[in-house]
Specification:
With 708 residues, the protein is α+β, with helices and mostly antiparallel strands. Helices cover 31% and strands 13% of the residues.
Length: 708
């Protein structure tokens, strides 16, 4: 006969086992007896309708803590609706405000859920609900609570947002604190779960565009669980690393009839199959431990908790675009998403709908630039042996000569740096660029309204040596004829000088291609700054104080802000992406040339306008204050100052309002903010040594050179 100790040990063992749920058919019966739809149950469990269906047909089982919550609910229903009793007749539907909300059970391990809002009326199981999702699991780190951001109307096709961060335990952290159960143990299973069950994705940004593919971000633990190496090592640059074609995961993907893009299986892997009808079948993966989130563009994001990463990327996806690669890639993809190359049009002869050119876009075919607009290794330069020179429209890298400094300037105790907010974004506003191929002209009269490249001699123009020349990146006076973009030549005309072009490559079809890109990124930048406490209604003193503390106010949103800025510079840089790889030979075509968005002339137009805008402000500052800059690096200018604040030298009217035309403080793109000069002093030292500061300063403007 068993002893008392043995019996108690057996009972304790039973108590320690996981909760046992009733059979799947009984789960469905209890829910139906209670008059609750699968959509309502999914809302209460912070899950998906498909997951609830899986629970009720036996395809999958819930995990803790959802397991304990589901058991508690089923036990409650079982007490009210016994299997052999007459089911209670469901009450008539009541107003949404009167429907009681499910309470987060004590077995949940996360923080207490916020006060719930009234639910939507009961829906049929076939129509997934769009619930408000208070966190039922620890969806944010313990460092700080998640900050609520404005949420747009949710697309019912994508009830769980644009992306999720998958951890090693199968928890997929989405936006708004939702946590999904992902049962996948292979990459193929993950792709199929994402497309069929996850409810992830995002609506198109233009009515002629395409929906954004769902993004799954893998933590190191999740990558290892799926059979991927924790780190992707090799001698190549980070962006060039890929899994070898004979890797088991690559073979597994191809065997399952899925495909990889030409970029292969790298930090940003796109897995797809041919579309079925009008429905795309594509999933984007980002592997954190493979440096998918570059520290320069996403500061400290890769080290955050999965839920915080989901929040950062979710805000970026909501305000900019679902990430599809580096911020440079996303910036370029955003241009196409907002200006799709084609639109549907009815064929008058057949009556069928066909794909046609979308006016204002860059179309579907790549376009070769004019020789002076190309890079030195481009086929249009190498094959014909072009020797006529090139555009040199780059950002400023200028240091004022010491012999132009006055004694009064040398005696001023401070040097203050002013950094223009997203100067290149401001330059893209209402920027008219060419949409058609370039045509060659000789001895043509200059027209400031026609975008293109002009061969003209500006060496006769003599300007104040205490200011950089507006015609060259290094600020030196031109020495002869050279190629310039339209904005540079137009500025010479604005300064009162005659210009007589010798040659020109001009485009007949034009348009403000970047306008929607500018508007979306400007709103994203201003809205994110406002969430960090930097708003348009602040006084200049309040603005400087808010900028001083904005990065500490919310590190997650500060990371979003950094990513938005990197998207601007990277997107502009991608317009002239250079060839990569040690095996490239001059004159060969490289992959970037095969896309319509390889447009170095548009990049030159943005940078030319930004540099001209900077020089115009420098000249206005001289007129209003008599101050001359010490140095200019890209969008940052350093002034000598009697005090440590820009308030000590910026021009203000007698009323106290900032004077227009010069530098002004504020959060809007094109306005200025205080910038420390330590990095600028380092840049000056590098320039004096003949080095390019943009290639040596972390987070500098190297992205404007060739993108990422």
């Amino acid at each position: 006969m068993a002893s008392e100790e043995e019996l108690f040990a057996n009972i304790d063992a039973l108590l320690e086992e996981e909760p046992q749920l009733p059979p799947p058919a009984e789960r469905a019966r209890l829910r139906e007896a209670a008059g609750i739809t699968q959509a309502r149950l999914a809302q209460a469990l912070k899950s998906t309708v498909q997951t609830v269906k899986n629970y009720e047909n036996g395809r999958s089982e819930p995990k803790s803590p959802r397991l304990e919550a589901y058991q508690r609910l089923l036990n409650g229903w079982a007490a009210k609706y016994p299997a052999h009793s007459t089911p209670a007749v469901p009450a008539a539907p009541v107003a949404p405000a009167a429907v009681p909300q499910p309470v987060a059970p004590a077995t949940f391990t996360g923080p207490a859920a916020p006060e719930a809002k009234a639910p939507a009326p009961v829906e049929t199981p076939a129509a997934p609900a769009t619930p408000q999702r208070p966190a039922a699991r620890p969806a944010t780190s313990s460092r700080r609570p998640a900050k609520k951001t404005a949420k747009p109307a949710t697309d019912p096709r994508f009830p769980h947002g644009p992306l999720a961060v998958l951890d090693g335990d199968g928890s997929a952290y989405g936006v708004d604190g939702i946590v999904l159960d992902c049962p996948a143990t292979t990459v193929v299973e993950l792709v199929e779960w994402t497309l069929r069950e996850s409810g992830l994705g995002a609506s198109k940004l233009n009515r002629y565009g395409k929906d954004s593919d769902p993004l799954i971000v893998l933590t190191a633990a999740a990558a290892v669980k799926l059979g991927l190496p924790e780190r992707l090592e090799g001698h190549e640059q980070r962006r060039s690393l890929r899994l070898p074609e004979d890797h088991p995961v690559v073979k597994q993907v191809l065997k399952a009839k899925w495909q990889l893009t030409q970029r292969g299986f790298g930090p940003w892997a796109r897995i797809y199959c041919k579309a079925q009808g009008r429905k795309r079948q594509c999933v984007q993966l980002a592997i954190l431990s493979w440096d998918a989130l570059d520290e320069r563009s996403w500061p400290s994001v890769a080290e955050m908790e999965p839920a915080d990463i989901a929040r950062v990327l979710g805000v970026y996806a909501q305000r900019v675009i679902t990430p599809r690669g580096s911020t440079a890639v996303s910036g370029l993809e955003l241009m196409t998403a907002l200006r799709p190359p084609t639109k549907p049009e009815r064929d008058e002869e057949t009556g069928n709908w066909v794909s046609s050119y979308n006016p204002g876009s860059l179309g579907t075919e790549p376009m070769d630039p004019a020789p002076p607009e190309a890079t030195q290794e481009h086929p249009v330069v190498v094959q014909p042996g072009w020797t006529g020179g090139f555009l040199n429209e780059e950002a400023y890298q200028w240091v004022r000569s010491l012999d132009t400094l006055s004694d009064e300037e040398c005696m001023l105790p401070f040097a203050v740096g002013l950094d223009l907010n997203t100067a290149f974004l401001a330059a893209s506003a209402r920027l008219v660029v060419g949409l058609s191929a370039p045509d060659h002209f000789h001895n043509v009269k200059f027209n400031p309204k026609i975008p293109g490249s002009w061969l003209v001699d500006l060496s006769h123009i003599e300007l104040d040596p205490r200011l950089p020349s507006p015609f060259t990146p290094d600020g030196t006076r031109p020495t002869g004829r050279a190629w310039y973009q339209t904005h540079t030549v137009a500025y010479a005309q604005e300064l009162g000088y005659d210009v007589h072009p010798i040659e020109a490559y001009l485009r007949r079809e034009t348009g403000a291609y970047l306008d929607p890109w500018h508007d979306r990124l400007k709103n994203a930048y201003v809205d994110t700054l406002a969430d960090l406490g930097v708003t348009k209604d602040l006084t200049d003193t309040e603005f400087l104080a808010a900028m001083e503390r904005h990065k500490q106010a919310d590190p997650a949103l500060a990371a979003v802000l950094a990513a938005i800025k990197a998207t601007v510079k990277g997107g502009v840089g991608k317009l002239r992406e250079r060839p990569q790889g040690k095996h490239y030979k001059d004159g060969e075509r490289w992959p970037a040339l095969e896309r319509p968005t390889w447009r170095p002339d548009i990049r030159a137009a943005v940078i030319s306008k930004a540099r001209v805008n900077m020089h115009r402000k420098l000249g206005n500052m001289v007129k209003m204050t008599g101050l001359y800059p010490l140095a200019v690096l890209s969008d940052c200018v350093v002034y000598p100052s009697p005090g440590a604040s820009p308030l000590d030298f910026l021009p203000y009217a007698a009323s106290g309002k900032p004077q227009p035309g010069g530098f002004r403080l504020g959060p809007t793109p094109g306005l200025a903010k205080l910038e420390g000069v330590q990095e600028m002093l380092w840049a000056i030292d590098l320039m004096e040594k003949g080095l390019n500061p943009a290639r040596h300063i972390k987070g500098g403007d190297a992205v404007l050179d060739e993108g990422e």
